[in-house]
TrEMBL record:
<dbReference type="InterPro" id="IPR015854">
    <property type="entry name" value="ABC_transpr_LolD-like"/>
</dbReference>
<keyword id="KW-0067">ATP-binding</keyword>
<keyword id="KW-0808">Transferase</keyword>
<keyword id="KW-0547">Nucleotide-binding</keyword>
<dbReference type="GO" id="GO:0005524">
    <property type="term" value="F:ATP binding"/>
</dbReference>
<dbReference type="InterPro" id="IPR003439">
    <property type="entry name" value="ABC_transporter-like_ATP-bd"/>
</dbReference>
<dbReference type="Pfam" id="PF00005">
    <property type="entry name" value="ABC_tran"/>
</dbReference>
<dbReference type="GO" id="GO:0022857">
    <property type="term" value="F:transmembrane transporter activity"/>
</dbReference>
<dbReference type="GO" id="GO:0016887">
    <property type="term" value="F:ATP hydrolysis activity"/>
</dbReference>
<dbReference type="GO" id="GO:0005886">
    <property type="term" value="C:plasma membrane"/>
</dbReference>
<dbReference type="InterPro" id="IPR017871">
    <property type="entry name" value="ABC_transporter-like_CS"/>
</dbReference>
<protein>
    <submittedName>
        <fullName>Alpha-D-ribose 1-methylphosphonate 5-triphosphate synthase subunit PhnL</fullName>
        <ecNumber>2.7.8.37</ecNumber>
    </submittedName>
</protein>
<dbReference type="GO" id="GO:0061693">
    <property type="term" value="F:alpha-D-ribose 1-methylphosphonate 5-triphosphate synthase activity"/>
</dbReference>
<dbReference type="InterPro" id="IPR027417">
    <property type="entry name" value="P-loop_NTPase"/>
</dbReference>
<feature type="compositionally biased region" description="Low complexity">
    <location>
        <begin position="1"/>
        <end position="14"/>
    </location>
</feature>
<feature type="domain" description="ABC transporter">
    <location>
        <begin position="51"/>
        <end position="298"/>
    </location>
</feature>
<feature type="region of interest" description="Disordered">
    <location>
        <begin position="1"/>
        <end position="47"/>
    </location>
</feature>
Length: 298
């Protein structure tokens, strides 16, 4: 057996990664060359789980400095059920984005498991899957919307959102219609639909990203500060859209630097600090606990 992933390079977006069927942010999967022996799922996972993270670790080796290691995650456990919206909170550097990127397999984790229950009911450890299976899951079942849309070149706004729908099983005609509805919902004007997404403003890109992430909602949606670049009116429209995901049964794992958004959307808040889970509970309890290191706008 080859060495498990205990460290990672500081340039995790490079390497012979597969092309995902669709990813709104066009982030390649972290290359999975080292291989990790697939383990059997533990028997004590919640029966309705979509995502069960167990003992997740992640370290970064700073090759370009002096080879020292930064430990970002120290053994995180977390469950997300269908229709549940779990918001990650904690100060800057706590490990929130790293956790989302490990789940989306942009980063290879250094230890632990990331159990994802597929639509077919199988439990797969995303941390140990071959790249090709990760690419399939990303297109069909796991969505990721980050702060920044990195659009694929020469693709129109309309095409980006439509192809997200076809990747999740819609016919092309249905996906085109749904893409138009989604673009209207996030207030992207029709004259922008044929333009290449690369020329859009930051806030417009973020809204296209949300439209693509929520069309034919995936089983698991990962959101990393998805409204950070939006003005109040657009922010409210996007938060409405995210709120409606509960009705579709989508499991959401999010990061918002905004107490109001967490309070409105989250069914549970998990507070990270120094790469560990410090607390978890309903927003009404967690957000009022002045002893917790929360870094949110009030
Ligand atoms: N690619 C990388 N290379 C080296 N270190 C990294 C890398 N990505 C994250 N880290 C380190 O991991 C730790 C956690 O970072 P992360 O981005 O997950 O924090 P965060 O909770 O999302 O913070 P913020 O609220 O500022 O977005 C930090 O110490 C960070 O410097
Ligand atoms: Mg972050």
């Amino acid at each position: 057996m080859t060495t498990p992933h205990t460290t990672s390079h500081t340039t995790p977006h490079t390497g012979p990664a597969p092309t995902p069927a669709f990813t709104p942010t066009a982030i390649p999967a972290a290359s999975h060359q080292a291989g990790r022996a697939p383990a059997d799922p533990p028997t004590d996972l919640p029966s309705d789980t979509v995502l069960s993270v167990r003992g997740l670790r992640k370290g970064f080796t700073l090759h370009t400095i002096d080879g020292r290691t930064v430990d970002a995650l120290h053994g995180v456990d977390l469950d997300v059920a269908p229709g549940e919206h779990v918001a990650l909170a904690g100060t800057s550097g706590a490990g929130k984005s790293t956790l989302l990127r490990c789940v989306y397999r942009t980063y290879l984790s250094g230890g632990g498991s990331i159990w994802f229950r597929t639509a077919a009911g199988d439990l797969r450890d995303v941390a140990a899957l071959p790249d090709a299976e990760v690419a399939d899951l990303r297109g069909q079942e796991i969505g990721y919307v980050s702060q920044f849309l990195r659009p694929q070149p020469r693709r129109s706004v309309h095409e980006i959102v439509t192809s997200a729908g076809t990747a999740r099983g819609m016919t092309r005609a249905a996906a085109r219609t749904a893409a138009e509805a989604a673009l209207h919902q996030v207030a992207i004007a029709e004259h922008l639909w044929d333009m290449h997404a690369t020329v859009l403003s930051g806030g417009q890109k973020q809204r296209v990203n949300i439209a693509a992430g929520t069309i034919a909602p995936p089983r698991l949606l990962l959101l990393d500060e998805p409204v950070s670049a939006l003005d109040p009116a657009n922010r409210a429209a996007v938060l409405d859209l995210i709120a409606r995901l509960k009705e579709t049964g989508t499991a959401v794992l999010s990061v918002f630097h905004d107490l109001d958004a967490i309070e409105r959307l989250a069914t549970r808040v998990v507070v990270l600090g120094g790469g560990r889970v410090l607390a978890a509970g309903p927003p009404s309890d967690i957000l009022r606990d002045s002893n917790l290191p929360l870094e949110v706008a009030r």
